[in-house]
Amino acid sequence: xxxxxxxxxxxxxxxxxxxxxxxxxxxxxxxxxxxxxxxxxxxxxxxxxxxxxxxxxxxxxxxxxxxxxxxxxxxxxxxxxxxxxxxxxxxxxxxxxxxxxxxxxxxxxxxxxxxxxxxxxxxxxxxxxxxxxxxxxxxxxxxxxxxxxxxxxxxxxxxxxxxxxxxxxxxxxxxxxxxxxxxxxxxxxxxxxxxxxxxxxxxxxxxxxxxxxxxxxxxxxxxxxxxxxxxxxxxxxxxxxxxxxxxxxxxxxxxxxxxxxxxxxxxxxxxxxxxxxxxxxxxxxxxxxxxxxxxxxxxxxxxxxxxxxxxxxxxxxxxxxxxxxxxxxxxxxxxxxxxxxxxxxxxxxxxxxxxxxxxxxxxxxxxxxxxxxxxxxxxxxxxxxxxxxxxxxxxxxxxxxxxxxxxxxxxxxxxxxxxxxxxxxxxxxxxxxxxxxxxxxxxxxxxxxxxxxxxxxxxxxxxxxxxxxxxxxxxxxxxxxxxxxxxxx
Length: 489
Prior knowledge:
Layout: H1 2-30, H2 37-55, H3 58-66, H4 72-89, H5 93-116, H6 119-141, H7 146-151, H8 160-183, H9 196-209, E1 219-221, E2 227-230, E3 233-238, H10 245-264, H11 280-294, H12 298-312, H13 320-327, H14 341-360, H15 368-380, H16 406-425, H17 429-434, H18 439-448, H19 458-466, H20 473-486
Parallel strand pairs: 1-3
Antiparallel strand pairs: 2-3
C-alpha cells in the first residue's frame, strides 16, 4: 500500500493548494481592489504553474503503477488521479500558466465592458481566451473532437453529439409549453421597491432554511453569483436588485444548493480527488432542485410569502397563491440567470451551439455579437436590447469555461430525475416545506447523492440516486404538470 499512501499524501497537498487558488478567485470577485487586477493575473499564473507541475509530476505515474486499490474508495481515487494526470500531461505548462494569466485579466475587462455596454472593449481579450482554449482543447483531444475534450473537464463521459440529441428532444416540448403559457396571459407580478438590507436578511434566512452551514461558509455580494470551495470552507455570493427581490432570493438558494453539496460530502474524502462534486452537471442538479422544485414549490413559497410580509409589509400580490404564481411567472426576458423554468434551457441551448461553433473555428469573434442577437431573435421572438442583456451577460467565456454551459441543462435533466424519486420516497414533503422545513428533502439528497462526492461517475451516481438511468422525460413531465396547472392550460 506504500505506493497508494505516498500518492494520496502528495495529492492532499495538491488539493490544498488548489483550494488556495480558488480562494484567490473568490477574492477577485468579491473584495479585491480594482487596481490589483494585473497583479492578480500574475499571481494566478504563478499558482497555476505550480499546480500544473505537481499534476504532471513523474512520480505520479510511478505511484499509479505501484498503487493497489483495496476497496471502491481507493479505486475511485486512483481513477480520478489517473484522469487528471493524463489530462494535464497533454497540456504544456507554459500554456496552462498563460491561460490562467489571460483569463484573470479578461474577467476584469469583461466586468468593465459589461458595465459600459461596450462589446468592442471585450472582444480583443476574448479572442485571446478563445485562441488559448482552442489550443488547449486540441492538446487534450489528441486528434479527436476538441469540444468533447473540453466537456470532459466538467462532465466526464459526455459528448457533444449525446448532448445535442438530448437537447434536441427537449426543445420541441419546451417551445410548445412556452408558447401556450405566454398565450394564456400574464401571471401576477411582484412590484415595488425592496431595500437591500431586507433582501439580504431574507437571503440569510433562506440559506439557513436550506441547511447552509455558516460555521463553514459565508455570503458576500458579486456581479455574477457563484459558489466556491469545498469541505470546511465553502463560500457563496448573491446580488440584489431593488425592483426584483426574487433575483436575490433564488440566486442565494441556487448557490446554497452548490454549497450544500460540497458541505455534504463525506468528510473522510476531504482534500482528495473525490472530496468534491462528481461533475458540474451533478452539481447543477443540486442547485436547480434546491432553487426550483423545492424553492419555487407551492408549499415553500407559502412560507416565503410570510417571510416577505414580515420584512416588507404588504405586497403587490395578495395571498400565498398569487405569490406562488409571481415566483413562477413565465415572462419575456434576456438574462439566463433570471429566466423562468420553462425558458431557462432555451438560453443554455443558444450558448451551447455558439460555443461549439467558436471552438470549431466556424464562428469568429468579430461575428459573435451578431450571431448571438440573430439566434436570440429566432429563439425568443424579440431583439436583444443591449449587450449586457446579450453577449456580455455571462462571465463564463471570459474565464475560459468552454464546455461548461451545457452542464446547466444537464443539471436540470438530472434534477428532474431526482425530484421524481424524492417525491416517491418522501410522502410528507409538502407539509414540511409549508413550514419552511426543507430537511426531509435536503437530507434525502445528502444521503442519496451528496455524501458520495466523486465516488461514482456522474451517470452512475444519478442512476443510483434516482433509481433509473437519467433522461429528459421526468423534467419535461414536471414542467408541463406544474405550468399547465399554474396557467390553467
